[in-house]
Amino acid sequence: MNKLTLVTILILFTLNSFCQEKGNFFISTEPSSANIELSEFPDVRKKSPATFNDYKAIRYLLKISKRNYQTIDTIVECLSNKTVNYHFQMTPKTGSANIYSSPTGAEVYINQQKVGYTPMVDFPISCGSNVITLVSSEYGTWQQTYVVDEEKPVIVTKDFTRADDLNNMAYSIPQISSYESETAQLSDESDETPGGGFGSVGFYTMIGTTGFEGATYRYGADLFNYLRLWGESNKKSDVSGIGFEGILPMDLGGAALFLKGGVVSRSFVPEDSFSKTSINFVTLGAGVSIKPSKHFQIFGEFEFGFVDDEENEETIELWEQKYNSFSAGSAWVGIRVAF
Questions:
Q1: Does domain 201-338 match CATH 3.30.1360.120?
Q2: Strand partners, 202
Q3: CATH homologous superfamily, domain 21-91
Q4: What backbone torsions phi and psi does residue 166 show, to the nearest 5 degrees?
Q5: What is the mean pLDDT of the chain?
Q6: Can you say whether the dihedral through the CA atoms of 309, 315, 320, 321 is positive or negative?
């Protein structure tokens, strides 16, 4: 088995591990508008409910967080060619309340559950909306709804001896204006980092130099930006070729880095001949992509071609006779449109 065959088998085996099937999963929470993060993609952030499309069929570490609720760290599984639905019930964090009345000794109810008598200091209470009711045996019942925040205690004071309701409600609700401002700011932010993902099917064109006179053009299609199939031509030097390659991308949101490897077969007409001769290369390379969105990318890359010198000695000589050199390196720039 020659070296070219061994390298080809290695690349195909590697590509097979890269080209995993994809699936979708849907995340919902109670309450909604929770922040969702995937540990494998720190730049991708969404708010529930959220759908994650075209992800590798593997398990993902999921983090769900929301102010005043306990953070959820869990694992979800993405199944091949399926959409899996996950729902999470979030548990409120615990805040505190200071509850006073005049006269003292009023019964205290929180959400219709009796919890004690006034005064109560640093009493644990669930974050969120709570109905606090005070019952005085002499003056009757008083009730108010409070929004409890995890960072500041609720202060409730009720003077049953005063008839003026406005002056009578001398309680303090936590200062939530900063929280509301933060929530508004978060809602204005994009749910997902711009440019995340690559789309399902892409079409691209490239221009590059392959070591002989004139520009070489490539044009082809890819699947999930993992597997490319393309053709190339250089009219000035009368060289054409076809090839396929696998891509290993590292998605950074608005940009991506990638490694690549594949096989290309180039055909040319030797000097003093009327029939074409082909030479096969195993290629390895890398590149960078600028991604305004997953549907459009601008990229640049380089590659090196490897050939079995012993088996192709005669073909290499014919190549050098016509083109005066035999270059193993090439550089390319191109654009990609994906759907």
A1: no
A2: 222, 338
A3: Carboxypeptidase-like, regulatory domain (2.60.40.1120)
A4: -60, -45
A5: 82
A6: positive
